Amino acid sequence: MSRMFCIPGIIFLFCAFVLSILVSISLPFLPALDIARAHMNGNALINGDTVNEIRFGVWAECTYKDDGSRICGDAGHGYSTSISDTNKDANVIIASSWTRGLAVHPVATAVTFIALLFSFSSHVTVTLIASILSFLAALLTLIAFAIDIALYAFLHHEIGKLSAVEGNTDTAPGFWLTFVSLILLLLAGCTVCFGRRRDRMSGASAYPSYPMSSTGKTPFWKRFRRN
């Protein structure tokens, strides 16, 4: 494949892989890379503790108190948490059905890594597989991003029910890193695909040369000869 298209494709895939793996690790291991967070100004109760903020990651949720201390739940696939105001007049539950789908993130990371490995090959068939895998990883990342949006929207809706909390919900760094990873994967897939097309076109344009006749022209019958 043309080197002009090969190198950018590898760079796009590598950057997408790095971002994707960071998001996949997420909470509770990387506190800054959560998906969505809610600020509750110390007016909410979670597990009996007054908290100022709650963050939702791929594997667990973490709560923050006014003094900055952090308490994270047990890491696992699908988790749930209950939030109420300090007066316990209202209570909302973020069920595991809204967090279980976040496990698509590491699946997209694995497919991105395989696509990255295939992209180093110069074989036409292997680069085609790399392009297909890039688009597959982009599809999985799109699904993960849709799940992130659903979690954020549901959290925003539920926090709104706690009028006494006066909280606000925001998207977090992991949310936007997933979006950037999606764009990079689409660029990588297109780059590898167009590079393969360019390679095929350049190969098809190379016509064989035939010896000329004594008149200086290629014999008529040789112009239609199969090679």
From TrEMBL:
Pfam families: SUR7. The chain crosses the membrane at residues 7-30, 102-120, 132-155, 175-195. InterPro entries: pH-response_reg_palI/RIM9, SUR7/Rim9-like_fungi. GO terms for cellular component: cell division site; growing cell tip; plasma membrane. Keywords: Membrane, Transmembrane, Transmembrane helix. PANTHER family: MARVEL DOMAIN-CONTAINING PROTEIN, PROTEIN DCV1-RELATED. This is SUR7/PalI family-domain-containing protein.
